[in-house]
Design brief:
By secondary structure, the protein is of the alpha/beta class. The chain is built from twelve helices and 19 strands. Helix 3 packs parallel to helix 4 and helix 5 packs across helix 6.
Length: 337
């Protein structure tokens, strides 16, 4: 299916790696994309690393990458503030050193205290961010500073499961200030994806991500096809409950899905109100209590069919099994509860 697109835009955390460890199969999949001459870009909401650092990290994993292929929410936030503020303006940075460096490179002056009269507050993820940083930001914003969030990801994927992300820290300030940020830069806003496509001169890009609320919604806002991989945050239950603006066009277990034929990974499109469908040895029917899965086959085709029927009608609260094979698949997909 990847041959239908002229650019593959990859999310990083949860798609290519978890923190600093490559996801199994991701390295070989990206190497194959390079061998096939496919153009790549990396778009990440994580503001704790600079583009060059991300490229170095990828190269250390055996993935050929250049800083110019990487787009971060820290870069985009600094660029936006540089367009809005006079050169040298003080900006209170809540986040990692990478975000401070981007602000500095954009011709602005990073500061750490509200007493320095910042014109703006830029808030991004940083593992050392604490109460004192949030307190300074609250004081500065109440004094009139523009509040920019690099992203609002509620969680970050790790090998131990999801942990609080920048969105959780933004929520703390939102609660204290009783207001939203003036601007959110990262996904699901379309800026990162649109910039990646413009840089590459791409006319038909596809976005690959692990989150419905950032990667997939961002792709849909950008008018791009998307592939959700189940190696990060969003899972089967999230998919079945996804609203229209967070539904991927394709679904795969991991990046190897890029090399399947389109029909094998595309989520079927059914007429609204459809009460059932069959494909890949599976049959899904809509019942008053939810969906019922029958037949036998592989797990991912079953999930795609479940999504197709779920998205064609009312929201689904429950999925039941009508065959032993279906029961096993629902267990593997964590849909048996």
């Amino acid at each position: 299916m990847v041959a239908e697109y002229d650019l593959v835009i990859l999310d990083l955390d949860g798609v290519v790696y978890l923190i600093d460890r490559p996801i199994p199969s991701a390295v070989e999949a990206i190497r194959r994309l390079h061998r096939d001459g496919q153009r790549l870009a990396y778009a990440t909401n994580n503001a704790s690393r600079r583009a060059a650092d991300v490229a170095t990290l990828l190269c250390g994993m055996g993935i050929e990458a250049a800083a110019a292929e990487v787009l971060t929410s820290a870069q985009a936030s600094a660029s936006l503030l540089a367009q809005r503020l006079p050169a040298g303006s003080p900006v209170l940075v809540v986040g990692a050193e990478a975000l401070r460096a981007e602000i500095r490179d954009a011709g602005l002056r990073p500061v750490g205290s509200a007493d320095e009269g910042p014109a703006a507050v830029v808030q991004g993820y940083g593992p050392e961010v604490g109460w004192a940083d949030l307190a300074e930001a609250a004081v500065a914003i109440r004094a009139g500073a523009v509040w920019v969030a690099t992203n609002t990801d509620r969680t970050l994927p790790t090998a131990r499961g999801p942990v609080p992300g920048n969105g959780a820290l933004v929520a703390a300030l939102r609660t204290a200030l009783e207001r939203d940020p003036d601007l959110v830069v990262g996904k699901p806003e379309p800026a990162l994806f649109e910039t990646a496509a413009q840089r590459a001169g791409a006319r038909r890009p596809i976005v690959v991500g692990d989150r419905l609320d950032t990667d997939i919604e961002g792709a849909r806002r950008s008018g791009m096809d998307s592939l959700l991989v189940l190696t990060g945050v969003s899972g089967a239950r999230d998919l079945l409950a996804a609203p229209p603006d967070r539904r991927p066009s394709h679904l795969a277990a991991d990046l190897s899905g890029l090399f399947e034929v389109d029909e094998a990974v595309r989520v079927p499109s059914l007429d609204d109100g459809s009460d059932g469908a069959e494909a890949g040895g599976w049959r899904v029917t809509r019942r008053e209590a939810g969906l019922a899965l029958a037949g036998s086959g592989q797990a991912l085709p079953a999930l795609r069919l479940l999504c197709a029927v779920a998205w064609a009608g009312e929201p689904v609260q429950r999925v039941t099994a009508d065959s032993p094979a279906a029961a096993e698949v629902l267990r593997r997909l964590a849909l048996d509860q």
